[in-house]
Amino acid sequence: MTEIGRIVKLKDSNAVVRFYRRGKCDGCGICSVIKDGAYVELELENSLELSVDDYVKVEIYNKRVFRTSMLIYLLPLFLTAIGAGVGSLASVGAGILIALAGLVVGFAFAIPIDVFVLRKKNGYKPRMLGACREVDYLNAKPEKNHN
User: What crossing angle do the helices spanning 63-88 and 92-116 adopt, rounded to 10°?
Assistant: First the structure.
C-alpha cells in the first residue's frame, strides 16, 4: 500500500511523516493516530533526505509480507477451530477449553514470529518511494461520508 504524506519533523536520520487517516488504517497499528483522529504519523528512514514540509510517497508494506502476516495470524484461528472440534468430541466444556488453549498457543507462536521475524524483513519496513507535490497530498485526503 502506498500513501502520500507530509514530513512534519526530522529526528536524526529519520523523518516523521503525517498522513490523512483512512478506514484501512484501523487495526494496522504501524502508525500513531494523532490529533482528533484525522491523521496518522509514521517515523521512517529519511532515505531521500527530504525536509520538513516536503511531501513524500511512502510504501507502507508490500504484498508478500502482508500475505505472510495474514498466514501467521490465521494460525490462532485455525488452532482454535481444531481445538473446538477435537474437544467437542468429549464434551461442550472440553471443546471450549481446548479451543481457548488453541487460541493461546496460536498467539504464542504468531506474535513472536511477527515481531522478531516478519518485522525484521526488508519488505515490512515502510520506505520512501519519492517526493510529491502538495496537490498530490491534498488529493489523497479521504472524502467525508455525508449520510
Answer: 160
